[in-house]
Amino acid sequence: MPGDHSSKQYDLDLEAIRSKVLLMGGMVESQFNDAIACFRTGNSNQADEVIKADEQVNRLEVTLDDSCSHLIVRRQPAANDLRTVMATVKVITDLERIGDEATKIARTAKELHERGIAGALNHYETIRVLAGRAADLLHDALDAFARLDQEQAAKIIAQDEVVDHEFRSIMRTLITFMMEDPRTISSALDTLWVAKAIERIGDHAKNIAEYVVYIVEGKDIRHTGYAHSKPESSV
User: pTM for this one?
Assistant: First the structure.
């Protein structure tokens, strides 16, 4: 392909950005896992570490956005090259927002612990399955992005509905719980807040998978029911 954007230096610049994006992905994945761990244990020190780590994620987002902007200006990528850069920018944004949601979970865990009711209502058991599914979704989305695997991305997009269904089930359970015992309202709302943050992390993982499809196939599949139109593969 002719043009400076297709030079070896462009490929090296883009690969350097992708490596840092995957580093950022690993950071927010750890943030999420640690946030769920401190929600389970009530470990305030671990919650503080999750909150502090978000500052580093935010700085990396700014650095990567700047790198992508400079890459566009210097190399003037065209066609699928530009598509890759623009999708990468969107992935960076989703990763930063995952870090924000993990921070919300850590803050809630810390507040519950400080109020001395960390074990009430079995908070962790309420969100355990949802958290596990969202963690798997995020891990698989990062893997699909690393390998640009559109088939795995399609599976992730379909699996997000399972996370949404689990969240709705938790919401119904907690509403019933609050109606039956108004004394649990404050604590149940905290748990619902955490469940919503986890559900949003699943949504961001789905977004990353959609950008993988965009990079590989050149299709913007948001809001299209793409995953349901793909033939199911054997498991």
Answer: 0.89
Interatomic CA distance for residues 6 and 97, integer angstroms: 31
CA–CA–CA angle 166, 168, 174 (5° rounding): 105
- Residue ranges, the chain, pLDDT below 50: 1-5, 118-120, 231-235
Contact of 134 with 199, CB cutoff 8 Å: yes
Query: How many alpha carbons lie under 13 Å from residue 165 in its C-beta half-sphere?
Result: 6
**DSSP 3-state assignment of 179?**
helix
Q: What is the CA radius of gyration of the chain?
A: 20
Q: Measured in Å, how far apart are the chain's first and last C-alpha atoms?
A: 39
Are the beta carbons of 107 and 51 closer than 8 angstroms?
yes
Rounded Cα–Cα distance for residues 95 and 100 (Å): 9
**In this structure, which CATH number among 3.30.70.260, 1.10.10.10, 1.20.58.220, 3.40.50.300 belongs to the domain 4-225?**
1.20.58.220
Q: What is the pLDDT of residue 32?
A: 98
